[in-house]
Amino acid sequence: MRLLDSVPPIVTPAEVDLLRRQLGLVAEGRALVVRGGDRTESFATNTEAHLVANAGALAQLAIPLAHCGPGPVVTVARVAGLYARSVASAVDPVGLPAYRGDLINAAEPTPAARVADPHRMIQAYAHASGATNILRVHLATGLANPYALQRKSNELLDAMDAGWQYEETAMEINRAMIFMQAYGISTEKATRTPPTLYISHEALALEYERPLVRVTRGRAYDLSAHFLWLGEDIAQLEGAHVDFLSRIANPVGVVLGPTVGPQYVLDLCDKLNPDNTAGRLTLICRMSGDETRELLPPIIEKVTAAGYRVVWQCDPMRGADADMGGSAGAFDRIADAVAAHFIVHRSLDTSAGGLQVELDGDGDGPAANHDPQLGPQQSLELALLVADMLRET
Fold it and tell me: Which domain holds residue 130?
Protein backbone atom coordinates (compact mmCIF):
# COMPACT_ATOMS: atom_id res chain seq x y z
CA MET A 1 0.00 0.00 0.00
CA ARG A 2 1.20 3.50 -0.79
CA LEU A 3 0.75 4.61 2.82
CA LEU A 4 3.41 2.15 4.02
CA ASP A 5 5.89 3.71 1.59
CA SER A 6 6.00 6.86 3.70
CA VAL A 7 5.60 5.71 7.31
CA PRO A 8 8.56 5.95 9.74
CA PRO A 9 10.64 2.76 9.89
CA ILE A 10 10.23 0.37 12.81
CA VAL A 11 13.99 -0.20 13.14
CA THR A 12 17.04 1.72 11.91
CA PRO A 13 19.79 0.80 9.43
CA ALA A 14 22.43 1.36 12.12
CA GLU A 15 20.76 -1.26 14.36
CA VAL A 16 20.54 -3.70 11.46
CA ASP A 17 24.25 -3.26 10.72
CA LEU A 18 25.12 -3.74 14.40
CA LEU A 19 23.17 -7.00 14.54
CA ARG A 20 24.93 -8.27 11.42
CA ARG A 21 28.31 -7.54 12.98
CA GLN A 22 27.32 -9.29 16.22
CA LEU A 23 26.07 -12.31 14.31
CA GLY A 24 29.44 -12.28 12.59
CA LEU A 25 30.98 -13.05 15.98
CA VAL A 26 28.55 -15.98 16.30
CA ALA A 27 29.60 -17.29 12.89
CA GLU A 28 33.22 -17.14 14.03
CA GLY A 29 32.48 -19.07 17.25
CA ARG A 30 33.10 -16.06 19.52
CA ALA A 31 29.49 -15.55 20.64
CA LEU A 32 26.12 -17.31 20.78
CA VAL A 33 22.70 -16.25 19.55
CA VAL A 34 19.35 -17.00 21.14
CA ARG A 35 16.14 -16.11 19.33
CA GLY A 36 12.72 -16.69 20.80
CA GLY A 37 9.12 -15.65 21.21
CA ASP A 38 5.67 -16.55 19.97
CA ARG A 39 5.20 -19.03 17.15
CA THR A 40 2.73 -16.57 15.62
CA GLU A 41 1.30 -13.29 16.85
CA SER A 42 -2.18 -11.83 16.74
CA PHE A 43 -3.46 -8.31 17.25
CA ALA A 44 -5.42 -9.47 20.31
CA THR A 45 -2.38 -10.86 22.12
CA ASN A 46 -0.20 -7.82 21.36
CA THR A 47 -0.49 -6.57 24.94
CA GLU A 48 2.12 -4.92 27.12
CA ALA A 49 1.98 -7.72 29.69
CA HIS A 50 2.54 -10.46 27.13
CA LEU A 51 5.31 -8.59 25.31
CA VAL A 52 7.21 -7.92 28.53
CA ALA A 53 6.77 -11.50 29.78
CA ASN A 54 8.18 -12.93 26.54
CA ALA A 55 11.08 -10.48 26.43
CA GLY A 56 11.90 -11.23 30.07
CA ALA A 57 11.88 -14.98 29.46
CA LEU A 58 14.16 -14.52 26.46
CA ALA A 59 16.62 -12.39 28.41
CA GLN A 60 16.53 -14.86 31.29
CA LEU A 61 17.46 -17.90 29.23
CA ALA A 62 20.42 -15.96 27.77
CA ILE A 63 22.13 -15.70 31.18
CA PRO A 64 23.34 -19.35 31.47
CA LEU A 65 24.53 -19.26 27.87
CA ALA A 66 26.48 -16.05 28.47
CA HIS A 67 28.09 -17.52 31.59
CA CYS A 68 29.16 -20.83 30.04
CA GLY A 69 29.52 -19.93 26.38
CA PRO A 70 32.43 -18.60 24.31
CA GLY A 71 31.43 -14.94 24.62
CA PRO A 72 28.42 -12.61 24.64
CA VAL A 73 24.92 -13.75 23.76
CA VAL A 74 23.03 -11.96 20.99
CA THR A 75 19.30 -11.96 21.80
CA VAL A 76 16.74 -11.60 19.02
CA ALA A 77 13.00 -11.62 19.73
CA ARG A 78 10.35 -13.22 17.59
CA VAL A 79 8.04 -10.25 17.88
CA ALA A 80 6.46 -7.21 16.20
CA GLY A 81 5.67 -8.77 12.84
CA LEU A 82 4.61 -12.44 13.07
CA TYR A 83 1.09 -11.57 11.93
CA ALA A 84 1.07 -13.73 8.79
CA ARG A 85 0.76 -17.51 8.63
CA SER A 86 1.87 -20.06 6.08
CA VAL A 87 -1.03 -22.32 5.09
CA ALA A 88 -0.95 -25.73 3.44
CA SER A 89 -4.32 -25.27 1.71
CA ALA A 90 -6.23 -22.29 0.35
CA VAL A 91 -9.33 -23.46 2.21
CA ASP A 92 -9.88 -24.64 5.78
CA PRO A 93 -11.59 -27.91 6.82
CA VAL A 94 -15.09 -26.37 6.57
CA GLY A 95 -14.51 -24.94 3.10
CA LEU A 96 -13.84 -21.31 4.01
CA PRO A 97 -10.80 -19.42 2.74
CA ALA A 98 -7.95 -20.27 5.09
CA TYR A 99 -7.06 -17.96 7.95
CA ARG A 100 -3.67 -16.56 6.93
CA GLY A 101 -2.96 -14.45 10.00
CA ASP A 102 -4.25 -11.11 11.22
CA LEU A 103 -2.11 -9.28 8.66
CA ILE A 104 -4.21 -10.83 5.86
CA ASN A 105 -7.68 -11.73 7.18
CA ALA A 106 -9.57 -12.55 10.38
CA ALA A 107 -9.83 -15.83 12.26
CA GLU A 108 -13.62 -15.77 12.68
CA PRO A 109 -15.16 -18.64 10.67
CA THR A 110 -17.29 -16.51 8.34
CA PRO A 111 -16.89 -15.76 4.62
CA ALA A 112 -16.68 -12.01 5.28
CA ALA A 113 -13.95 -12.39 7.89
CA ARG A 114 -11.79 -14.51 5.58
CA VAL A 115 -11.67 -11.94 2.78
CA ALA A 116 -8.14 -10.59 2.41
CA ASP A 117 -8.12 -6.94 3.53
CA PRO A 118 -5.10 -4.77 2.61
CA HIS A 119 -5.99 -2.30 5.37
CA ARG A 120 -4.88 -4.97 7.84
CA MET A 121 -1.30 -4.23 6.81
CA ILE A 122 -1.72 -0.76 8.32
CA GLN A 123 -2.98 -2.34 11.52
CA ALA A 124 -0.02 -4.72 11.51
CA TYR A 125 2.40 -1.82 11.13
CA ALA A 126 0.74 0.03 14.02
CA HIS A 127 0.87 -3.05 16.26
CA ALA A 128 4.50 -3.75 15.36
CA SER A 129 5.54 -0.14 15.98
CA GLY A 130 3.71 -0.06 19.30
CA ALA A 131 5.21 -3.38 20.43
CA THR A 132 8.73 -2.24 19.55
CA ASN A 133 8.33 1.06 21.39
CA ILE A 134 6.91 -0.61 24.51
CA LEU A 135 9.81 -3.07 24.65
CA ARG A 136 12.38 -0.31 24.16
CA VAL A 137 10.93 1.56 27.13
CA HIS A 138 10.97 -1.51 29.36
CA LEU A 139 14.53 -2.38 28.35
CA ALA A 140 15.62 1.14 29.21
CA THR A 141 14.03 0.85 32.65
CA GLY A 142 15.48 -2.49 33.71
CA LEU A 143 13.74 -5.37 31.91
CA ALA A 144 17.14 -6.98 31.21
CA ASN A 145 18.62 -6.32 34.66
CA PRO A 146 20.85 -9.40 35.12
CA TYR A 147 20.49 -9.50 38.91
CA ALA A 148 16.68 -9.45 38.79
CA LEU A 149 16.69 -12.03 36.00
CA GLN A 150 18.96 -14.34 37.97
CA ARG A 151 16.75 -14.06 41.06
CA LYS A 152 13.80 -15.09 38.91
CA SER A 153 15.85 -17.96 37.46
CA ASN A 154 16.60 -19.22 40.97
CA GLU A 155 12.89 -19.15 41.82
CA LEU A 156 12.07 -21.18 38.71
CA LEU A 157 14.91 -23.58 39.45
CA ASP A 158 13.61 -24.17 42.99
CA ALA A 159 10.22 -25.10 41.55
CA MET A 160 11.69 -27.37 38.87
CA ASP A 161 11.43 -31.13 39.45
CA ALA A 162 14.81 -31.68 37.81
CA GLY A 163 16.37 -28.50 39.16
CA TRP A 164 19.02 -30.42 41.11
CA GLN A 165 20.59 -31.48 37.81
CA TYR A 166 21.61 -27.88 37.14
CA GLU A 167 22.60 -26.93 40.67
CA GLU A 168 26.32 -26.67 39.88
CA THR A 169 25.77 -24.35 36.91
CA ALA A 170 23.29 -22.23 38.88
CA MET A 171 25.74 -21.89 41.77
CA GLU A 172 28.50 -20.80 39.38
CA ILE A 173 26.26 -18.09 37.93
CA ASN A 174 25.23 -16.90 41.39
CA ARG A 175 28.88 -16.66 42.46
CA ALA A 176 29.65 -14.66 39.31
CA MET A 177 26.82 -12.23 40.13
CA ILE A 178 28.07 -11.81 43.69
CA PHE A 179 31.61 -11.22 42.38
CA MET A 180 30.38 -8.48 40.00
CA GLN A 181 28.47 -6.74 42.77
CA ALA A 182 31.48 -6.95 45.07
CA TYR A 183 33.59 -5.17 42.47
CA GLY A 184 31.10 -2.38 42.03
CA ILE A 185 29.15 -3.57 39.00
CA SER A 186 25.87 -2.56 40.58
CA THR A 187 22.31 -2.96 39.37
CA GLU A 188 22.34 0.71 38.38
CA LYS A 189 25.50 0.33 36.29
CA ALA A 190 24.28 -2.90 34.73
CA THR A 191 21.19 -1.17 33.34
CA ARG A 192 22.64 2.26 32.58
CA THR A 193 23.10 1.33 28.92
CA PRO A 194 20.14 -0.86 27.95
CA PRO A 195 20.81 -3.65 25.44
CA THR A 196 19.77 -3.16 21.85
CA LEU A 197 16.39 -4.68 21.13
CA TYR A 198 16.57 -6.87 18.05
CA ILE A 199 13.30 -7.99 16.51
CA SER A 200 12.58 -10.57 13.84
CA HIS A 201 9.79 -12.18 11.90
CA GLU A 202 9.24 -14.44 8.92
CA ALA A 203 9.08 -12.54 5.62
CA LEU A 204 5.89 -14.23 4.44
CA ALA A 205 3.87 -11.30 3.09
CA LEU A 206 6.01 -9.46 0.56
CA GLU A 207 3.17 -6.98 0.06
CA TYR A 208 3.94 -5.79 3.61
CA GLU A 209 7.74 -6.09 3.46
CA ARG A 210 8.45 -4.27 0.19
CA PRO A 211 6.90 -0.90 1.15
CA LEU A 212 8.99 -0.83 4.32
CA VAL A 213 12.28 -1.07 2.41
CA ARG A 214 14.37 2.11 2.62
CA VAL A 215 17.62 2.86 0.79
CA THR A 216 20.44 4.25 2.94
CA ARG A 217 23.97 4.89 1.66
CA GLY A 218 23.15 2.95 -1.48
CA ARG A 219 21.94 -0.15 0.38
CA ALA A 220 18.35 -1.41 0.70
CA TYR A 221 17.15 -2.28 4.21
CA ASP A 222 13.84 -3.88 5.16
CA LEU A 223 13.13 -1.74 8.20
CA SER A 224 10.14 -3.76 9.38
CA ALA A 225 12.62 -5.79 11.49
CA HIS A 226 16.30 -6.31 12.11
CA PHE A 227 16.29 -9.98 11.06
CA LEU A 228 14.06 -11.67 8.47
CA TRP A 229 13.79 -15.38 7.83
CA LEU A 230 12.01 -17.84 5.54
CA GLY A 231 10.42 -21.16 6.38
CA GLU A 232 11.43 -24.28 4.53
CA ASP A 233 8.16 -24.36 2.62
CA ILE A 234 8.61 -20.99 0.89
CA ALA A 235 12.39 -20.81 0.55
CA GLN A 236 12.47 -21.72 -3.13
CA LEU A 237 15.79 -20.83 -4.75
CA GLU A 238 14.15 -19.18 -7.75
CA GLY A 239 11.14 -17.92 -5.82
CA ALA A 240 10.13 -14.35 -5.02
CA HIS A 241 10.84 -14.65 -1.29
CA VAL A 242 14.46 -15.75 -1.67
CA ASP A 243 14.94 -13.10 -4.35
CA PHE A 244 13.62 -10.44 -1.96
CA LEU A 245 15.97 -11.48 0.85
CA SER A 246 18.89 -11.50 -1.57
CA ARG A 247 18.32 -7.78 -2.28
CA ILE A 248 18.25 -6.41 1.29
CA ALA A 249 21.14 -5.67 3.65
CA ASN A 250 19.53 -7.22 6.74
CA PRO A 251 20.90 -10.41 8.24
CA VAL A 252 18.57 -13.18 7.06
CA GLY A 253 17.84 -16.80 7.86
CA VAL A 254 16.39 -19.89 6.22
CA VAL A 255 14.89 -22.91 7.98
CA LEU A 256 16.50 -26.23 7.09
CA GLY A 257 14.16 -29.16 7.59
CA PRO A 258 14.76 -32.87 7.05
CA THR A 259 13.97 -32.67 3.31
CA VAL A 260 16.89 -30.41 2.35
CA GLY A 261 20.20 -31.64 1.02
CA PRO A 262 23.74 -30.26 1.02
CA GLN A 263 23.61 -28.90 -2.54
CA TYR A 264 20.44 -26.91 -1.82
CA VAL A 265 22.14 -25.35 1.20
CA LEU A 266 25.24 -24.48 -0.84
CA ASP A 267 23.01 -22.85 -3.46
CA LEU A 268 21.26 -20.88 -0.71
CA CYS A 269 24.61 -19.64 0.59
CA ASP A 270 25.60 -18.48 -2.89
CA LYS A 271 22.24 -16.81 -3.51
CA LEU A 272 21.79 -15.07 -0.17
CA ASN A 273 25.40 -14.34 0.77
CA PRO A 274 27.50 -14.14 -2.39
CA ASP A 275 30.07 -11.93 -0.63
CA ASN A 276 30.39 -14.52 2.19
CA THR A 277 29.92 -11.89 4.88
CA ALA A 278 30.01 -13.44 8.35
CA GLY A 279 26.70 -12.83 10.13
CA ARG A 280 24.68 -12.24 6.96
CA LEU A 281 23.13 -15.73 6.70
CA THR A 282 21.75 -17.94 9.47
CA LEU A 283 20.88 -21.57 8.77
CA ILE A 284 18.09 -22.54 11.17
CA CYS A 285 18.16 -26.31 11.66
CA ARG A 286 14.61 -27.45 12.44
CA MET A 287 15.06 -31.18 12.86
CA SER A 288 14.38 -33.83 15.47
CA GLY A 289 17.27 -35.37 17.36
CA ASP A 290 17.47 -38.44 15.12
CA GLU A 291 17.19 -36.32 11.97
CA THR A 292 19.93 -34.02 13.25
CA ARG A 293 22.32 -36.90 13.91
CA GLU A 294 21.71 -38.42 10.48
CA LEU A 295 21.16 -35.46 8.14
CA LEU A 296 23.01 -32.47 9.55
CA PRO A 297 26.66 -33.68 9.46
CA PRO A 298 26.94 -33.93 5.64
CA ILE A 299 25.36 -30.47 5.29
CA ILE A 300 27.80 -28.93 7.78
CA GLU A 301 30.73 -30.66 6.11
CA LYS A 302 29.77 -29.39 2.64
CA VAL A 303 29.18 -25.83 3.80
CA THR A 304 32.40 -25.77 5.81
CA ALA A 305 34.45 -27.28 2.99
CA ALA A 306 33.12 -24.60 0.62
CA GLY A 307 34.33 -21.91 3.03
CA TYR A 308 30.95 -20.34 3.76
CA ARG A 309 30.80 -18.36 7.01
CA VAL A 310 27.29 -18.94 8.33
CA VAL A 311 25.51 -18.94 11.68
CA TRP A 312 24.18 -22.38 12.58
CA GLN A 313 21.11 -22.17 14.82
CA CYS A 314 19.22 -25.05 16.41
CA ASP A 315 15.41 -24.97 16.24
CA PRO A 316 14.37 -28.04 18.26
CA MET A 317 10.61 -27.53 18.15
CA ARG A 318 9.93 -29.89 15.22
CA GLY A 319 10.31 -32.97 17.41
CA ALA A 320 7.43 -31.85 19.60
CA ASP A 321 5.02 -30.52 16.96
CA ALA A 322 3.01 -33.71 16.64
CA ASP A 323 1.76 -34.06 20.20
CA MET A 324 3.12 -31.22 22.30
CA GLY A 325 -0.07 -30.68 24.27
CA GLY A 326 0.10 -32.60 27.49
CA SER A 327 2.74 -35.05 26.28
CA ALA A 328 5.27 -35.95 28.95
CA GLY A 329 7.85 -36.77 26.28
CA ALA A 330 7.55 -33.51 24.35
CA PHE A 331 10.21 -31.64 26.30
CA ASP A 332 12.49 -34.67 26.19
CA ARG A 333 12.32 -34.65 22.38
CA ILE A 334 13.11 -30.93 22.31
CA ALA A 335 16.08 -31.47 24.63
CA ASP A 336 17.25 -34.40 22.50
CA ALA A 337 17.22 -32.24 19.36
CA VAL A 338 19.26 -29.54 21.12
CA ALA A 339 21.78 -32.05 22.48
CA ALA A 340 22.14 -33.66 19.06
CA HIS A 341 22.79 -30.28 17.41
CA PHE A 342 25.54 -29.31 19.84
CA ILE A 343 27.13 -32.78 19.86
CA VAL A 344 27.22 -32.90 16.04
CA HIS A 345 28.95 -29.53 15.88
CA ARG A 346 31.40 -30.54 18.60
CA SER A 347 32.31 -33.69 16.66
CA LEU A 348 32.96 -31.63 13.51
CA ASP A 349 34.80 -28.85 15.37
CA THR A 350 32.34 -26.21 14.17
CA SER A 351 30.36 -23.62 16.12
CA ALA A 352 26.84 -24.66 17.12
CA GLY A 353 25.74 -21.02 16.97
CA GLY A 354 22.78 -21.01 19.34
CA LEU A 355 19.07 -21.62 19.84
CA GLN A 356 15.78 -20.61 18.28
CA VAL A 357 12.78 -21.45 20.46
CA GLU A 358 9.09 -20.75 20.52
CA LEU A 359 8.22 -19.60 24.03
CA ASP A 360 5.31 -18.19 25.99
CA GLY A 361 6.67 -16.04 28.79
CA ASP A 362 3.40 -15.81 30.71
CA GLY A 363 2.21 -19.37 30.07
CA ASP A 364 2.88 -22.77 31.56
CA GLY A 365 4.34 -24.33 28.44
CA PRO A 366 3.38 -27.46 26.52
CA ALA A 367 1.63 -29.30 29.34
CA ALA A 368 -0.98 -26.54 29.56
CA ASN A 369 -1.97 -26.13 25.91
CA HIS A 370 -1.75 -27.63 22.45
CA ASP A 371 0.49 -24.93 21.01
CA PRO A 372 4.12 -26.08 20.94
CA GLN A 373 5.65 -23.25 22.93
CA LEU A 374 7.87 -23.49 25.99
CA GLY A 375 6.95 -21.85 29.27
CA PRO A 376 9.52 -19.88 31.32
CA GLN A 377 10.56 -22.91 33.37
CA GLN A 378 11.12 -25.13 30.34
CA SER A 379 12.98 -22.35 28.50
CA LEU A 380 15.32 -21.99 31.47
CA GLU A 381 15.81 -25.74 31.72
CA LEU A 382 16.74 -25.88 28.04
CA ALA A 383 19.24 -23.04 28.49
CA LEU A 384 20.78 -24.78 31.50
CA LEU A 385 21.04 -28.01 29.50
CA VAL A 386 23.00 -26.14 26.81
CA ALA A 387 25.08 -24.38 29.46
CA ASP A 388 26.06 -27.74 30.95
CA MET A 389 27.17 -28.95 27.52
CA LEU A 390 29.16 -25.76 26.97
CA ARG A 391 30.89 -26.20 30.33
CA GLU A 392 32.11 -29.61 29.18
CA THR A 393 33.84 -28.28 26.04
Answer: 2-391
